[in-house]
């Protein structure tokens, strides 16, 4: 002990052996500009300039992990870091970190603009770790994004395209907007942005479209372009199963210019033809054979739409057994009393793009007798007592529509109602890719394409800069595709079966990063925050280095020795 070198323990000496993890938010919101340029680019530059070369750390971005590296080894990766289509999710990143074998104690440096961060996510930060937040601030919070595009109306020669914009911030006055098909300009205008939401209409030729809409907005750029495709209109195959006299009204709706419509009595039904249909109408069948039930269940699972119109002779027990194949819809008693169909659920997906304005004074159709229905699905049309006249079970690839009453003219005047045309038209067309095709990256909704593959056949999606093979399931003459988090970049793509073109498809980034509203200042009040990575490294070094007193003693001893020698030399 006599020769021990004296020192004071550093304030944070117990954390000297902590492993370091840097979480870097590379969301699109980090495109916003701060005092020194784009937030992400500035954060990367600070890491490159201020991280000590001998410091070992692991880097985690929104989607990638780089374990046990140093700034020299990861320099090129940081310099080429791209913005991620997947939004910043602290929980998901911490789950990745915790799944990796690590020490119990960690230093976690989180660089994020904190967009979307909430107190629930912060609760998952381990208590025994030291967490630091660097929250770069955007100077300009104004932003405009293109949120969606859809066909509002179709005429013989044109599509009326509806474009929805969102405006965030203040004093956004006007903005140029343009539409391109195959990179060729086809329409351009300047719009005033006097409200947070704005809808614009464009007429474009009724033909195949594979292009985009763009705006000129000076802040975030990722949401300035919306890619979409419109396929050449394909006829929709519809079959009605039931008595031919009861299908006459369907023949007037499903006309030859847009549909291949047929009717078949149950006794002469060709079961093999059902797999070629896009929609099947069960039109007041007194009984549904077990073989047909099995076929219809498979048909719906493979992307076909089913429309069910009950018969007054149906057994309630048999009906419920059949409908149980598709969801939670239960028929109860058959009631013989007049009812008014008086309410349209305008928010139901069935009526998307159907009505320009909400109408309340239409001529109410009636039914003389109907089944009461118990179900948890939102109704599309309701009686005056708020019970369902038309309800639906929607899934990502198909829909099952269920009426609660027979539609024959003896029981109802619904066939004479103007509502019947858009209702049956939209039911048959659900998910048939005859509208705008624009998928969101990261959204797990499947996409169904008409394609006949061999046993080992595979569909591939590609454009000039990227190509990938989606997860796919063969369903007769159709293929169901899911994409997980692909593609990496938004754009227009083509689907190929080997070298043969099948269909166009478009992908866009999620718009969840478009609102740059600043962070709640109280959210991080219980956590250590810093203005720069430099200050964090300086703090770690000063707080974790022991105060070595013996070094100071040696220094002072040498100084005193020099002073003494000077005195002896110069003062005789």
Could you explain how this protein is built, in words?
InterPro entries: Class_I_gatase-like, vWFA_dom_sf. This is Membrane protein. Keywords: Membrane, Transmembrane, Transmembrane helix. It is elongated and about 130 Å long. Strand 5 and strand 6 (about 65-70) form a beta hairpin. The protein folds into four domains: about 5-140 and about 515-545, von Willebrand factor, type A domain (Rossmann fold), CATH 3.40.50; about 145-230, Immunoglobulin-like, CATH 2.60.40; about 235-430, Class I glutamine amidotransferase (GATase) domain (Rossmann fold); about 435-510, Immunoglobulin-like (Sandwich), CATH 2.60.40. By secondary structure, the protein is an alpha+beta fold. The longest helix has 22 residues, at about 550-570. The strands form nine sheets. It has a nine-stranded mixed β-sheet with strand order 17-16-18-19-26-25-24-21-22, with helices on both faces. The chain has a six-stranded mixed β-sheet with strand order 6-5-2-7-8-36. A five-stranded antiparallel β-sheet has the order 12-11-14-15-27, with no helix packed on it. The chain contains ten helices and 37 strands.
